[in-house]
Amino acid sequence: MKSIQLVALIAVLAIALAFTANAQYVNQQVGDNGTVNWSNQVIRATGIGAGNPNLPLVSQRASAIRAAKLDAWRNLLETVKGVTLTSETTVQNAMVTSDVISTKVQGIVKNTTMVGEPKYLSDGSVEVTMEMPITGALTDVVLPTTVDGQPWGQQQYQGQQQQAAASYTGLIVNAKGLGARPAMAPKILDEQGNEIYGSRYVSREWAVKMGMVGYDKDLNRARSNDRVANNPMVVKAMKVSGPNKADVVVSQQDAAQIKAVAANQNFLDKCKVMFIVD
């Protein structure tokens, strides 16, 4: 009896630990079968399939796995379509406006492989999970191709550079409590709506490799994130902007300091930026 109770207790603790760990991540549910983990930058979808009853019994399990994979690929594609691209658009919008983008995105999804082992359900059906990164191929396809480079020069902000002498290694924008939502290509704006940070002003190579922004729920944890460590500059967002609430607005004073530091350092160019969200 004691051994059974011990096993049950261990199971409960394992579930509780898994739930706690998952709660730390910035997750977005898309539909019934898909999730986007913005902290780890992965997209997942599950699929369920049943075996073909007309096949021999020994072949039905394999056919169930094939059916589950097809279902998971369909669900993964729908999940990808629901990912927010900018504060105005989703990946689906980009696919609708370009047949080339649509074809490439579908090809990327179709090449995704199953993660973990199939789950065999009590009714004889099978559940599988497909996972793909947000960064890399997907970002390369949907991210705008226009890159203008840093929009401010060193001469203009020379005085502020002297005041902002700290050697910052990244930027954290604290948007906690503002209802900010994750996106693949968000912007940082000043109070007048001028773009301080966005896909036009970064190295596209770094944006594809790392993603435009990293997301976390905890400021202290973000400070030690490899993306921005060891000495990130931290500013507080005033509000969010755009229909998808993906862009953040900072004060004119913070905007000027970000420009001053960025004019002499390249952490913005390398996408060393994180947003703290709910």
Can you describe what's shown?
With 278 residues, this protein is α/β, with parallel strands linked by helices. The protein folds into 2 domains: 26-142, no CATH class; 158-276, no CATH class. It is built from 9 helices and 13 strands. It has helices at residues 2-23, 57-81, 91-97, 99-110, 137-142, 158-163, 204-210, 219-223, 252-262, and strands at residues 27-30, 34-37, 42-49, 114-120, 126-133, 170-174, 188-189, 195-197, 214-216, 232-236, 239-241, 247-249, 273-276. The strands form 3 sheets. It has a 5-stranded antiparallel sheet. The protein has a 4-stranded parallel sheet with strand order 9-13-6-10. A hairpin with a 3-residue loop joins β1 and β2. The longest helix is centred in the N-terminal third of the chain and has 25 residues, at 57-81.
Helix and strand arrangement:
Blueprint (H helix, E strand, L loop, with lengths): L1 H22 L3 E4 L3 E4 L4 E8 L7 H25 L9 H7 L1 H12 L3 E7 L5 E8 L3 H6 L15 H6 L6 E5 L13 E2 L5 E3 L6 H7 L3 E3 L2 H5 L8 E5 L2 E3 L5 E3 L2 H11 L10 E4 L2
Parallel strand pairs: 6-10, 6-13, 7-12, 9-13
Antiparallel strand pairs: 1-2, 2-3, 3-5, 4-5, 7-8, 11-12
Helix pairs in contact: 2-4, 3-4
